[in-house]
Amino acid sequence: MGSIVKRDFATPDDVYEFVHGRSFVVRVGENEEVWRSELGPGWNWDEDLEPYADGATSCPMTHREYVVSGRIRYLTDDGAEVVGEPGEFLFIAPGHRAWVVGDETCVLIDW
Question: Is this prediction's pTM over 0.85?
Answer without folding.
Answer: yes
